Amino acid sequence: MTKQTKNRLQISKRTALGAALLVCSGCVSGGGPSLAGLNPFNKNAEPTQTAGMETSESKGITGTVAATAQGARGQVSTMSSAVKSAYGKTTSSIAGIFSPKSEEMVDAMGQTIPADDPLRLDNKPDSIGPEVFVANGQLWETTGDLDKALENYNKALKAEPTNAPALASVARLKFRQSLYKEASDYFRQAVQSAPNDASLYNDWGLALSKLGEHEEAAKTIQKALAIAPGTARYANVLASVQFDAGQSDKALETLTQHNKPAVAHFNMAYLEFNQGNYDRARLQLNKALSFEDDASDDSAVRRAIDRSKELLARLDGPAGQIANVAQAAPQAYDAAKQLSQTVNQVMATSQQPGAEPTADQPAANPVAGPFTLPPDFYKQPAAQTAQQPSDTSSR
Questions:
Q1: Between helices 214-227 and 232-244, what is the axis angle to 10°?
Q2: Residue 58 and residue 92 in contact, taking contact as beta carbons nearer than 8 Å
Q3: Short-list 100, 102, 93, CA closest to 120
Q4: What whole-number distance in Å separates Cα of residue 183 and Cα of residue 209?
């Protein structure tokens, strides 16, 4: 190796070493990551330039490092701005939610809540509508506090005297308290405010029936059926009113027109059962059971058949036998009482002075005196009835 070649190798090594030092110290004019640039008190300092130490290879290395550093600074700056923006939006959102006095409120997503939004915390209504008092009263009624319920209904009527739901609520509350006259008056007002509400006519008819106005009650319930034709509930109520008025045939006709035959006969049996007519109830139950073949295709018929069997079993069981005896007891009592009165009259006549016993009139026993029944015979036994079914939903 010649001396000239050795010199060239030494120069190359020195050049590479210098380039490495420039990269680490940041003293290159290419704008590398100088430590002086991170000093906030040295923003205007000029970077130190070193001449005669750069080669084409060193420029490429320093340029890459500088570009990488610049990109990293840009990413950090962008991330910082994004975090700052998100923090600002979150702070504004939270402040908006918990600041009801602010003119523009925002939700959790940073969206402005309209000023007329009913869910705004600062949106207070000018007045409370009657529907709020009605709903509140119904809640009180479910708890059993009827006084509180009536108080809220009256507040609703004070806000709107012709409010139909409030009038109907008061009417039903009065009916629940067995104040049928007051209930009827409120139902009349409710019907005037809501003339197309079938349920009001139905309930009004029930109140009239409780007052003994069966004919007027039937007409009122028929108006409910005219508004809502085919409604079985209204038809069953109408049949009940007709039955209470002594029109059992018309009641059965009404039930048959609006129910399946099995359902109609079961409902009629239930009316007879409640009235104490157990033989007639048994007759209607047997008629209902004659449609048992239709039970597989109709759920309503199946329920009527099942309940007919249950009620018939009660009538034929021990409780039913007791009920039959209790039902027959008044008739036996009347017959025995009439017989006793007849015997006493005969005995009294036979003891009259100068009266001679006849062939068909036995003489009174002078020792025992006239024939008398036991002292407690005239005490009519208390009627014992069978247990009534608790489920009337099939009606």
A1: 170
A2: no
A3: 100
A4: 12
CA distances from residue 242 to 91, 212, 337, 389 in whole angstroms, order as listed: 72, 11, 35, 21
Dihedral, CA of residue 136, residue 138, residue 144 and residue 145, to nearest 10 = 40
Measure CA of the first residue to CA of the last residue in the chain; give whole Å.
123
Whether the pLDDT of residue 382 is over 70: the answer is no
Of the residues 124, 151, 183, the one at which a domain ends: 124
Task: Say how far apart CA 170 and CA 156 lie, in whole Å.
Answer: 10
Domain boundary among 124, 146, 177: 124
Classify residue 380 by its DSSP letter: P
* Radius of gyration for the alpha carbons in the chain, expressed in angstroms and rounded: 51
How many domains does the chain fold into? 2
Contact, 269 vs 259, CB < 8 A? no
Place of tokens 């006259």: 181
Per-residue pLDDT of 300-353, as tens digits, reads 999 999 999 999 999 987 654 544 545 554 555 566 566 666 656 656 665 555
In the predicted structure, residue 260 carries a pLDDT above the cut 90:
yes
How many other CB atoms are there within 10 angstroms of residue 65's CB atom? 17
Residues 205-226: pLDDT tens digits?
999 999 999 999 999 999 999 9
Mean residue pLDDT of the chain comes to 72
Domain contains 273: yes
pTM as predicted: 0.52
CA atoms within 13 A on the CB side of 128: 11
Q: Does residue 246 lie in a domain region?
A: no
Whether residue 114 is contained in a domain is answered as: yes
Helix (H, G, I), strand (E, B) or coil at 393: coil
Q: Pick from 35, 14, 10, 11: which is nearest to 23 by CA?
A: 35
**Domain span holding position 325:** 259-339+384-395
Structural domain includes residue 228: no
Contact 278, 327 (CB under 8 A): yes
